[in-house]
Design goal:
- The protein has helices at residues 36-42, 46-49, 64-75, 122-142, 147-162, 166-172, and strands at 20-25, 31-34, 80-87, 93-104, 110-118.
- The protein is an alpha+beta fold and 173 residues long.
- A 5-stranded antiparallel β-sheet has the order 2-1-5-4-3.
- A hairpin with a 5-residue loop joins strand 4 (93-104) and strand 5 (110-118).
- Helix 3 (64-75) packs across helix 5 and helix 4 (122-142) packs across helix 5.
- It starts with 19 loop residues before the first strand and ends with a helix.
- The mean pLDDT is 95.
Length: 173
């Protein structure tokens, strides 16, 4: 039940200072749990969300390269921080500052992902919005087949120019 039939709107929902959106997924990205704040901001019911791919809330303004970086980091059993623009069921959007962490089974194997999102600083959104626009332009320029690699290369170049790691950059803005 992906929302690719929903057209994005300019209606923004801003998280409250004390909001935490929490979700847990399996390794395929299917939602196993979402707290009431996650459900509220998504605009979907709990029944609509559970068992559905987490990308049901993916906003088209998000570059593929960001998610490629996120998945690569998580597959290496590391946590990842990211600013993400999500889309709710009605086409509105909301920005989050996400911390995504792999969860492990008793054998130490990754068995799912746990994500906690909070309200991002407006100044950080301004910075990442510009970067994400550049990444999306790069993706469009090369086409779908090479989109992830191209936008990830652009991100890597920007970080190299800044002399920063991804995590240092994200946590500094």
């Amino acid at each position: 039940m992906k929302n690719n039939h929903t057209a994005p709107t300019q209606k923004e929902r801003v998280m409250r200072e004390d909001d935490f959106l929490v979700s847990k997924t399996d390794l395929k990205g299917r939602i196993l749990y979402g707290n009431r704040i996650f459900i509220e901001f998504s605009g979907y019911s709990e029944e609509e969300l559970l068992g559905t791919q987490h990308n049901i809330i993916r906003h088209p303004d998000m570059p593929r390269g960001v998610f490629k970086f996120l998945w690569d980091t998580l597959q290496s059993k590391q946590e990842c921080f990211a600013y993400v623009k999500n889309m709710s069921k009605d086409g509105g959007y909301y920005w989050v500052f996400a911390n995504v962490t792999p969860s492990f089974n008793a054998r130490g194997e990754v068995d799912g992902l746990f994500s906690v999102r909070r309200k991002p600083h407006a100044s950080a959104i301004a910075i990442v919005s510009g970067l994400y626009r550049l990444m999306l332009e790069e993706e469009k320029k090369v086409g779908a087949k090479d989109a992830c690699a191209a936008s990830l290369a652009l991100l890597t170049d920007v970080l190299k120019q800044k002399g920063m790691s991804y995590e240092s950059f994200i946590l500094s803005i």
